[in-house]
Amino acid sequence: MAIQQVYDPDRIKTPMKRTNSKKGRGIDPGFVPITWDEALDTIADKLMELKNNGETKKYMFLKGRSTGVGDVFYKKFNILYGTPNYFGHGSICAEAEKMANWATEGTFSYHDYDIANCKCYLMWSTDPIASNRQVSNAISRWGSVMDGAKIYVIDPRLSVTAAKADKWLPIIPGTDGALACAIAHVILTKGLWNKKFVGDFKAGPWNYELTDNYNNKKNLFVAGETVDEEKFEYANGYGLVRWWNLALKDATPEWAEEVCGIEASTITEVATQFGKYGSSSISWQSPGTNMQVRGVYGAMAANALNGLVGSIETKGGVFRAASASTGHLPDHNHFRDSNARKMAKMKPIDGRIRKDFLAFDGSHIHGNVITSRIADVLNQEAPYEDCGYEIKVLISCWCNFAFSSTGAQRWEEALSKVPFYACITTHPSEMAQFADIVLPAKHHLFERYGYQKNNQGLQTYISVQQPIITPLWDTKTDETEIAWELAAKLKDRGFANIYNYYSKAFVDPETGNTPTKASEFAEIAVKILTEPCWNGKNAKAGQGKDLESWRNFCSKGLFNSKTQGTKKHWGKLGHATGKFEFYSESLKELLEELATQYKCDVNEIMEGLNYQARDGLAFVPHYEEPVRYGDEKTYPYIFEEHRSRLSREGRSANCVGFQELKDLDPGDEAWDDVLKINPSDMQDLGLNDGDTIEVSSVQGTITVHAKGWEGTRPGVVFKCYGQGHWAMGHIAAEDYENFKPRGGNNNEILPCDWERLSGSTARHGGLTRVSIKKVND
């Protein structure tokens, strides 16, 4: 499909400008082709107008998925220009997972997994064969995984991985925390926790079984009974007894069955097997578990199971991201003027600096951007209530929030109101339809320099992207070449700071030369950032010694770090305690800090964050009732979504391969968009396969086709994300010229809400209920 993307006749081939001043869905922009000079001159004039009026804060930059050189434009350009308003897509992605890992384990990052040696999997809506950062790795290994491990998939949907599991647990959406706590309850009451990693009860008269033998210790974790923490001696665990007392002692399998719809006997079986395999077990969470309005605590509970069985950095266990050194962009402070320094202190427009958001980024309260909320702010009357000013100029790069963000209609309204908007993209996306200037980007895999850093198989791999074909059309690299040429235009207008930084601070690590044109700058930027991978002379601890040169790195295409060792961080996990925190002192400290900032107590903070926990429960993994939009009488069905294995980060809908092979996603149909409904619900609704239906929520209505499917539990309906484009091209849309979508966009029926500890967009856990109505074709 990447080949189909690069040769797609619907790609943006040259810069374009809008000739129709009216903006909105279904309104023809009247785009006409222009030269790069005219396009960049227009943008530079708008930026200089703000600069000359002391209004640089009124410029905003939005970024989607990027390569490792994304910060050249995303951060450095915008910091030096002087705006606090540059926002990435991360909070729309999966930041809640990082938050849960940090609260328990002390690492604000995704996990890596030793799937080659794991013996028991709990897959929390995880579908690594189809939708995960390790898809190629998982596909190549999953046959061996199935031969050598127990696989339990916890998912309301029969995913590809669930179809290949030992047992599928079709949980009620949003109740993951209850199931995780019940599993922990069983592990503790059966004495299956890893005593070497966590700790154990001390010997003493309170727990002996034989009157004269204190070494034959009794398990004090008994259902319904409180435990004295003084009787427990910790190793690498912390606060387990408090977790038990606050959240687990009454979390029996029978209690969980009523909440999550999984039989108590199944819960006991799964917990026993997970505990039996101990440190070779993996509890593997996904956005389906954590990107819920109240998702972090359930995700903490899922990760705490890894702590309970001691599978942290063990053979067959869970690992934090492997380390491999990359370079750093040159320091920019010498090139920052007084205005830029002043504007860096201004309040950003996303509204994260407020009492009802913690928005933790791993280092700072209010440090994580809340990208989805920007649409709401843009729709306020100017000056915006949240920040006291308005946005006049917007540049976006490789993002399509008018399609990919929940409550997508909000973005359509917001983009219609921005006075000037320049969109950098490869395809005529929904956001591009609102642009005043459209700039065509090179394809990231085949036409430009970049690099990617990721983790797989307990290694970090760094892959270089490089031009291997001559660009087909008049395109430029979004992250470097466009940034360079726009900086040059600003220099011509009297503001040279960004250009001077690019042209003087960026030094080729091989030749010592500085760039003189955009193409040189693009390559040098990647060389600087990947130097530790290929320059053996400057590499840390011998890293990159075998590659020796930039050209050899480009020839090989890939650098692999050393495989991680086991138990590397035991006793020195990322918290002040140095231990795995079942009772999170670190989260407690954050919540108390936010409470102090707003002169209230933690309970008031928790209410503002839309969590139910109060007092000590706020510091331990526990079950929170799911938030659902829409009353059950009007909207009787819980709506859930999933990702396609063909998605390519959501950019592949205009590929024939995506549409032709859509039935690779379980329950889906080629060249169609279906709502998957349990057969019993199909009968109640009087529906047949292929019937045209309207699916409505409190947010909006979409039109799709009905599909009876046994792979979802009664009362829960599923739809794959990816269809519903009314733009993007002639394949993605059913009728591109007339803005008619192929199917429906999930984000037009999913309301916008957040997991407020991390600032992540909430989209899972059965966020909304829907009604289903048959319509005449």
Word description of this protein:
Helix content is 30%, strand content 16%. It is α/β, with parallel strands linked by helices. The strands form 10 sheets. Strands 2-1-18-17-16-3-4 form a 7-stranded mixed sheet, with helices on one face. It has a 6-stranded mixed sheet with strand order 24-26-25-32-23-27. The protein has a 4-stranded parallel sheet with strand order 8-7-6-14, sandwiched between helices. The protein is globular and about 85 Å long. Residues 208-215 have low confidence and may be disordered.
Going by helix content, strand content and strand pairing, the class is alpha/beta
**Helix proportion range:** 25-40%
Q: What's the rounded overall pLDDT mean?
A: 94
Shape: globular
Contiguous runs where pLDDT drops below 50 for at least 5 residues: 208-215
Please state how the strands of the largest beta sheet are arranged side by side.
2-1-18-17-16-3-4
Main sheet record? 7 strands, mixed
Number of strands: 32
Gyration radius from CA atoms, angstroms: 27 Å
Oligomeric state of the chains present here? single chain
End-to-end CA span:
32 Å
User: What percentage of the residues does DSSP assign to strands (E)?
Assistant: 15-25%
The tally of helices reads: 25
Write the SSE topology.
Layout: H1 2-6, E1 16-17, E2 32-33, H2 36-52, E3 59-63, H3 71-81, E4 86-87, H4 90-93, H5 95-105, E5 111-113, E6 120-124, H6 135-148, E7 150-154, H7 160-163, E8 167-169, H8 176-189, E9 199-201, E10 208-210, E11 213-217, E12 232-234, E13 237-238, H9 240-248, H10 253-260, H11 264-277, E14 281-284, H12 287-290, H13 295-308, E15 318-320, H14 338-343, H15 374-378, E16 393-397, H16 401-404, H17 408-417, E17 420-425, E18 437-440, E19 450-456, E20 459-465, H18 481-492, H19 497-505, H20 518-534, H21 550-556, E21 558-560, E22 580-581, H22 585-597, H23 602-608, E23 637-642, H24 656-660, E24 674-677, H25 679-685, E25 692-696, E26 701-708, E27 716-720, E28 733-735, E29 740-741, E30 754-755, E31 760-761, E32 768-774
Parallel strand pairs: 3-4, 3-16, 6-7, 6-14, 7-8, 13-22, 16-17, 17-18, 23-27, 24-26
Antiparallel strand pairs: 1-2, 1-18, 5-15, 9-12, 10-11, 19-20, 20-21, 23-32, 25-26, 25-32, 28-29, 30-31
Helix pairs in contact: 2-18, 5-13, 8-10, 8-11, 8-13, 10-11, 18-19, 18-20, 22-23
